[in-house]
Design a protein that fits this description.
Strand content: 5-15%
Number of helices: 22
CATH superfamily of the largest domain: ABC transporter type 1, transmembrane domain
Strand order of the largest sheet: 6-9-10-3-11-12
CATH architecture of the largest domain: Up-down Bundle
Mean pLDDT: 83
Low-confidence stretches: 1-18
Distance between the termini: 68 Å
Radius of gyration: 35 Å
Number of strands: 12
CATH class of the largest domain: Mainly Alpha
Largest sheet: 6 strands, mixed
Helix content: 55-70%
Structural class: alpha/beta
Shape: elongated
Length: about 600
């Protein structure tokens, strides 16, 4: 089955960026894969509309032919017909509701999956500027609002419109002068509903924005709870969250007031129309131009005429909420994927040399971190990057697997610009071991197999043994042991050992290592050094080095200062120069003394 077209367009958190009609059409495209159920649910409106229209006719007939003529058999027969129409309506509505609920669940599931896939393709620069709580809102709350439209809107809006038209035809067929008198109230109804619709749209825009801000604040404070508690800032952070929580409450109150207002307005207009019909009908009946049964039929049909109007006004809340959510979904789906797969990618291979050629890079805020870095790494060579904090060492590691793209110069693998390679194939050639090791909630085995899902238990245990981390895993319940969110039930040193074992298991041609500088005990420090050496043995590696032992074993050392390479060479060559590297070594020896 074909997948539904992606939502496209321009959107923002404020209204007016995309028209309601274009957004509605894009939302309806989500229903294309489920068109069979949509057609069946729509077809079920035929018996629903028929039963709704026939009931006033039955009531009018019973009044004129039954009660006035005292034909009790006719009253009993038509009463049975009326009950049968009610039963048909209940059964059809139940089936239609089930179909629409199923449709909504399936449609939102595919939409949510597509949004998550989109998020995975976005560059790291997007996450640098976007609070994670807002992304969570897009994928959860916003998609739920769209699902609610599919369930309570979509097909039912068409059905309500059909019932409205059918009832209007019935009113005109019963009595044209009486119908025209009642319909004179419609312009006021249309203007009022349009005003409420516009205000409701604005209110729900504020609701969704307030929800995103509140979720972003919640996510940030939960992630930084240890800092909040260490600095005794619970009261201050609680006040900050309460401010956003209250803003969300106030935005919701406005939306609720408008929702109640539009329903009351439509109800009031229905009462006015009924009063007009009674006044005009009484005069026509007195003149003999209208029977009592016909007047009752007209009043009953008029009441049913306002039922879909009430339903449509009730759906205004759902529709406006869904349109605002759709704007935000469109905004996410339109976010450019700057790290794109080339249309005709070159083969990704690393057999000879990695080169940085006059590489420049600036983050989203415009701060240039690398200002013309050139370096070379031959296959099988170990290269160390050293320098002060902020020199650009870790940025070099992020550029090679294209977590970010260079803003100047180029990076090549075997003379092929990495931007001409498929990012997925490029990343299979490298494994990065960052300082801040991230473990996913799940099992120890699942975390270790991230780089090699097919690894057997024996392979995993061998990697753990080589990295001196097997006892760590056994202490936490073995490969099936639970890992809590972000690996918080593992110490920093334990997480670093697991990260080294994970990289060893993946067995990449090239390793990118941001050597840990965390304060750990002497035993763990020695284990980390031994595990690092086991991992680096015989591999091409680019290491942001902090330990002197790691630097000394490097085949070539590049010293960075202020985003440029100030010197490079072997350990002995750089010591002989007596420059920045020699000072770095002296400081390291003093620190280790």
């Amino acid at each position: 089955m074909r997948s539904s077209p992606a939502l496209t367009g321009t959107a923002a958190d404020r209204p007016g960026r995309a028209s309601d009609w274009r957004l509605a059409l894009r939302l309806l495209r989500e229903l294309w894969p489920h068109r069979a159920r949509v057609v069946v649910a729509g077809a079920l409106y035929l018996p629903l509309v028929a039963t709704q229209l026939v009931q006033p006719l039955i009531i009018g007939f019973v009044v004129d032919r039954g009660y006035r003529a005292r034909d009790l058999d006719a009253v009993a027969w038509w009463s049975g017909a009326y009950l049968a129409s009610v039963l048909v309506r209940v059964l059809v509505e139940s089936g239609q509701s089930w179909l629409l609920q199923e449709l909504g669940i399936d449609a939102v599931t595919s939409l949510r999956a597509r949004l998550f896939a989109k998020i995975q393709r976005l560059p790291m620069s997007y996450f640098d500027k976007t609070p994670l709580g807002k992304l969570v809102t897009r994928v959860t709350s916003d998609t739920e609002s769209v699902a609610e439209l599919f369930v309570t809107g979509s097909v039912s809006i068409v059905g309500d419109a059909a019932f409205l038209l059918g009832t209007l035809v019935l009113l005109l067929a019963v009595d044209v002068p009486l119908s025209l008198g009642v319909l004179a109230t419609l312009p006021l109804l249309v203007v009022g509903v349009a005003w409420f619709r516009r205000r409701t749209r604005q209110a729900f825009t504020r609701v969704r924005a307030a929800l995103s801000t509140m979720n972003a604040t919640l996510q940030e404070q939960l992630s930084g709870m240890s800092v909040v508690q260490l600095f005794a800032q619970s009261a201050r952070m609680r006040a900050r969250f309460d401010e956003h929580n209250r803003a969300y409450m106030m935005a919701n109150r406005e939306a609720i007031a408008l929702d109640a207002g539009v329903f009351s307005f439509v109800d009031a207009m229905a009462t006015v129309a009924t009063a007009v019909a009674l006044a005009l009908g009484a005069g026509l009946a007195d003149a003999g131009a209208l029977t009592l049964g016909t007047l009752v039929l007209f009043i009953e049909a008029l009441a049913r005429f306002f039922l879909p109007v009430r339903e449509l006004s009730n759906k205004t809340t759902v529709i406006q909420s869904a349109l605002v959510a759709a704007e935000r979904i469109v905004e996410l789906e339109n976010e450019p994927e700057r790290i794109e797969r080339p249309a005709d990618p070159e083969p990704a291979r690393f057999e000879r040399e990695l080169r940085f050629e006059d590489v420049r890079f600036a983050y989203a805020d415009g701060t240039e971190v690398l200002k013309g870095v050139s370096l070379a790494v031959a296959r099988g060579q170990r290269v160390a990057l050293v320098g002060q904090t902020g020199a650009g060492k870790s940025t070099v590691l992020k550029l090679l697997p294209r977590l970010y793209d260079v803003t100047g110069g180029r990076i090549t693998l075997d003379d092929a610009d990495v931007r001409r390679l498929d990012p997925r194939e490029l990343r299979r050639l490298t494994v990065a071991v960052p300082q801040d090791v991230f473990l996913f909630a799940g099992t120890v085995g699942d975390n270790l197999r991230i780089g090699k899902a097919s690894a057997s238990d024996a392979e995993v245990i061998a990697a753990l043994t080589d990295c001196q981390a097997l006892d760590v895993v056994e202490q936490h319940g073995g490969l099936g042991g639970r890992v809590l969110e972000r690996g918080q039930n593992f110490s920093l040193g334990e997480r670093q050992l697991l990260a080294l074992a994970r990289a060893l298991l993946a067995d990449p041609p090239m390793l990118l290592l941001d050597e840990a500088t965390a304060s750990v005990d002497r035993l763990t420090e020695r284990r980390l050094q031994a595990a690092t050496e086991r991992l680096l043995a015989g591999r091409t590696a680019v290491v942001v080095a902090h330990r002197l032992s790691t630097v000394e074993r490097a085949d070539r050392i590049y010293v960075l200062e202020g985003g440029v390479v100030v010197e490079d060479g072997t350990h002995a060559e750089l010591l002989a120069k007596g420059g920045p590297y020699a000072r770095f070594v002296e400081l390291q020896r003093l620190a280790e003394a």
